[in-house]
Amino acid sequence: MALSDSERGYPASAGSAAYRRAAAGWLTRRFGISVDPDHALAACVGTKEFVASAAQYLRLRTPGRDTVLFPAVSYPTYAMGARLGGCRPVPVRELPGGGLDLDAVDRADTDRALALWVNSPSNPTGLLTDLDRSAAWGRSHGIPVLSDECYAEFTWDGPPRTILSSGVEGVLAVHSLSKRSNLAGARAGFFAGDPDLVGFLTDVRRHAGLMVPGPVQAGAVVAFDDDAHVEAQRGRYAERLPFLDEVLSGEGLVGPMPAGGFYLWLPVPEELSGDGWTAAEALALRAGLLVSPGDLYGPDGAGFIRVAVVQPMDRLRLVADRLADPVAAT
Ligand SMILES: Cc1ncc(COP(=O)(O)O)c(C=O)c1O
Fold this sequence. Notes:
By secondary structure, the chain is α/β, with parallel strands linked by helices. It is 39% helix and 15% strand.
């Protein structure tokens, strides 16, 4: 970043050629797919702003549609982005093993849908979605499918997946260095897929002044080109997830290991109130462990907590010690 010599001029909103090539190169290495870095891929300033603004911009392209479909238990920015864009957020129920119950979407909502968001691996549930099926559904209804794949590197059940494996028509994959490279502070991501969608959004986003700073773009090239640090990070999560899962199951908070991502999504049993907020308060007071009450991800999440394993093992051991013996561990 310090050596990029790119501080003085405006950076390209779509990302420098080196940035786009590095991102496309990573897609090829990781997923075995190839996208045109000049027409089918562009930078975003981390992915939250993309998630929050996509509906607003897509509405300029298709003014007659005003509905955004998204998983019922999900990252809150899908619904917020719909509202910011003056659209109706319509949650889609998930099937028990993962995947959206797309057959249950109301015909009227389908007709009005501007986009469908999918998120696999999912924050917060850790479930995987059938991306090919989602893409096929979107194509058959003429609805762009926006696939938030920012946790793809941390796929535990099988290889990482992208919606782009089913082709680029009508779909966008959205990726971030925040999770892959643990670089949330840098603000670097990209979207890739259908050249018409990428071209339209790139043009609008340029006018909106959305740019990844030049030095960050230069640093991102290094991060996209390197896989060793991701492997190290995978190893950390792979150690922390089962450790904390076991500690919390000893407290009656029993849930499956995630198929992907670095969150435990744990139901709160009736004996422990059945309520995510009560369980979150108890863990904070007893162990200093901060977890998210599940209803932050939609009303269907109310009886759950989400635990992010983003602290090093010594902190997680301290949590275990405090839960085992609150007095001795103070
Ligand atoms: C599902 C999901 N999408 C997108 C983001 C946004 O990440 P960033 O803006 O840092 O790329 C997050 C962050 O937690 C997330 O969980």
